[in-house]
Write a structure and sequence with these properties.
Four Helix Bundle (Hemerythrin (Met), subunit A), mainly alpha
Length: 154
């Protein structure tokens, strides 16, 4: 086998081995949603929320006086099952000005929901002791996609 043939064979083997590796690496970074349509199991998400709430409740060691505030907090933090998910295919079919108006309307709805959640956190946080507040701060740290840029305590 000549030197040129060995080089060509080595290049072919390298490419044959490298393509699946690059493909696997690229697949790890594929988006988790397509055109704004999330693909997730809502029952699983609700179960995860309930589990995290139970863990936080246990770690906080709430007193009987704090239980009412806890109930109000968890009910306000649980996503509403009645909230309609936007029909992104219908929104994308709108003319640009109408689409922008719809997006602004959706953003305002999300902002109003977030404002209610902020108020619930402040109210609940106010009934906690300083030690409980430290636990709450650590457990309520940002996680997931949004937490990659900040500290994440597990």
């Amino acid at each position: 086998m000549s030197k040129l043939q060995k080089i060509i064979l080595a290049a072919f083997v390298s490419v044959s081995v490298g393509i699946p590796a690059v493909s696997a690496y690229a697949n790890a970074f594929e988006p988790q949603c397509e055109h704004g349509v999330m693909h997730f199991d809502q029952a699983r998400v609700a179960g995860n929320i309930a589990q995290r709430q139970a863990q936080l409740h246990d770690k906080l060691g709430l007193t009987a006086d704090q239980e009412a505030a806890w109930s109000a907090f968890t009910s306000s933090m649980t996503p509403s099952a009645t909230q309609a998910k936007p029909d992104w295919s219908a929104i994308s079919a709108l003319p640009a000005p109408e689409r922008m108006d719809k997006m602004l309307s959706l953003m305002k709805e999300r902002e109003a929901a977030m404002t209610l959640r902020v108020a619930a956190v402040k109210t609940f946080y106010g009934v906690l002791t300083p030690a409980q507040q430290k636990i709450f701060d650590a457990q309520f740290a940002m996680r997931g996609c949004h937490g990659k840029h900040g500290a994440s305590v597990r």
